[in-house]
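Blinded run. Sample ID left blank on purpose so nobody reads anything into the name before looking at the predicted structure. Input follows.
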Amino acid sequence: MQVDRSLSLHLIIVNPIDARSSSAFPVFFFFNDTATTEIYTSLFVGSVRLYKRQALGVAQRALDLAVDYAQQRVTFGKPIASRQAIKFKLADMEIRLQTARAQLFYNAQLIDKGIYDGMLGSVTKTCVSEMVFDVANQALQIFGGYGYSREYPVEKLLRDARIFSLFEGTNEIQRMIIGGTLVPKKRN
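Blinded prediction complete.
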């Protein structure tokens, strides 16, 4: 979500995404006073940030493309989906995606109950952002050289996946928050 107060009308930009699609589209809300803008902004801030859900959509799309490609791509007379190494790669992608989805939904449920845990937010952000990059990268691996080509959508998904580790502080910053919570500083 982005709030642009440089306009005479306040603008909130939200990018909703379908969990099974990687195509985001912006939704614009215009308000003519600060109070209304603040009310609507708080509605978005009070839940898990949209980009984490977008990351799930990018990862799901990468996995779906990888499965489809593996079933269609034939080497030595058999689809590569029949190869154990590819099946394991796809299984690992699904495991990572389902784990991150469960983590995100758990965090969202706590927030909906009014419970906000900063460390849990950092854990969720790191878990989801690392998952989306790993899943998109493995999808590119399954596509082989074609995955690097702009003719195939998996190349863009990998580029899109990289940004999720930078939003709301890098994963290194998130690890500092997590570590600082686990091992608080001693005061003399």
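Unblinding after everyone has recorded impressions. Helices lie at 34-45, 50-72, 84-112, 118-143, 154-162, 171-182.
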